[in-house]
Specification:
This protein is α/β, with parallel strands linked by helices. About 45% of the residues lie in helices and about 10% in strands. It folds into two domains: about 90 residues; about 160 residues, Nucleotidyltransferase, domain 5, CATH 3.30.420. The C terminus is likely disordered.
């Protein structure tokens, strides 16, 4: 076709050179145009999803398109990735960002989640607070409660404050859905797990938990892995939504963006850890969920190197250099 459209040669001459008929030329032209139109529809659908979740990965995009339009609509995995790459829609590697934490004088509770296995919603909640940078150097905070079984965000509150009263509002939202599901004001058997931040240890928050017979559990070692599901929820919101914004926005803008993304997260985003299903679906299921990822297997040499690093950090901490603790 390049010989015809770019070099200006006659169709009859070109098809004779390659041993084909004129019908084959026009059929090939029609097939290419059909393929281009189909790719355009796929890309438009991808852009619609990315409009809700700018940082969602290619693999989940493909699964969502299959669920929406059927397997025949979506190209194969490798071809789909090639299409995304050709259209500049492959995501760059995210830049890591970190938060710092503070200490307080309130009672800190033991970790009740070690080796726990959840088999239904509202057995274990994980809570955390993450900051959101705004234009002009301002900051707001997103108070979150996530159900560990379904990974559904069951309680949340966006505010300019870190006050415990804001965290309690997020807790009330989570409690309302749990009471509605169970039909009882008592949520005995439910564990609320969080870090040791002052918001979760203060008298008002603890009293709110005890009012519904909710057991209290907290991280003990100040490691992100002690509250991994909460950290993962924070990471998804930041990496797939907030970090993809082309510029920092106002608090008023975030009041519209965050609710929309949380709705997408709960009702449309597929999660590997629950078998590529949405949290809203899993929230009403029971039994173990099939996770679609595997733990990384480290070699003996890697393990020895990590142990050496941990040993060195421990000696450094004992010398008074310390590390910032998480809220």
């Amino acid at each position: 076709m390049e010989l015809v459209f770019e070099c200006g040669l006659a169709v009859a001459l070109v098809v004779r050179l390659f041993g084909h008929c004129r019908q084959a030329f026009y059929q090939s032209k029609a097939d290419i145009e059909t393929e281009i139109e189909h790719e355009r529809k796929v890309i438009d659908a991808v852009k619609d999803i990315r409009g809700e979740d700018p940082g969602i990965g290619g693999y989940k995009l493909r699964l969502m398109l299959i669920e929406m339009f059927g397997r025949g609509f979506v190209p194969g995995r490798d071809r789909f990735f090639v299409l995304l790459r050709r259209k500049g829609l492959m995501l760059p590697k995210p830049k890591p960002r970190h938060t710092t934490n503070s200490n307080h004088r309130y009672h800190k509770y033991n970790n009740l989640t070690k080796d726990i296995v959840v088999t239904a919603a509202n057995q274990l909640w994980v809570a955390d607070i993450t900051y959101i940078a705004l234009a002009g150097g301002d900051v707001c905070y997103l108070h979150l409660i996530t159900d560990a079984y379904s990974h559904k965000i069951v309680g949340w509150k966006l505010a300019k404050s870190l006050k415990a009263a804001i965290s309690i509002e997020a807790l009330k939202m989570a409690v309302e859905q749990a009471v509605s599901m169970s039909g009882s004001e008592s949520l005995k058997g439910l564990i609320h797990h969080s870090d040791r931040g002052v918001q979760y240890c203060c008298d008002a928050y603890v009293a709110a938990l005890k009012a519904y017979d909710i057991s209290i559990s907290m991280c003990e070692d100040y490691k992100p892995t002690d509250n991994a599901i909460a950290e993962r929820t924070n990471g998804i919101i930041k990496v797939e939504c907030l970090y993809r914004q082309k510029q920092l926005h106002t608090y008023e803008y975030m009041q519209n963006l965050i609710p929309n993304f949380i709705h997408f997260y709960n009702y449309h985003r597929l999660h590997m850890s629950i078998g590529y299903k949405t949290p809203a679906v899993v929230h009403f299921e029971q039994g173990l969920q099939e996770r679609k990822w595997k733990n990384k297997i480290y070699s003996q040499k890697q393990t020895e190197n990590e142990n050496n690093v941990v040993s060195l950090q421990s000696r450094t901490n004992s010398m008074g250099e310390g590390v910032c603790q998480r809220i």
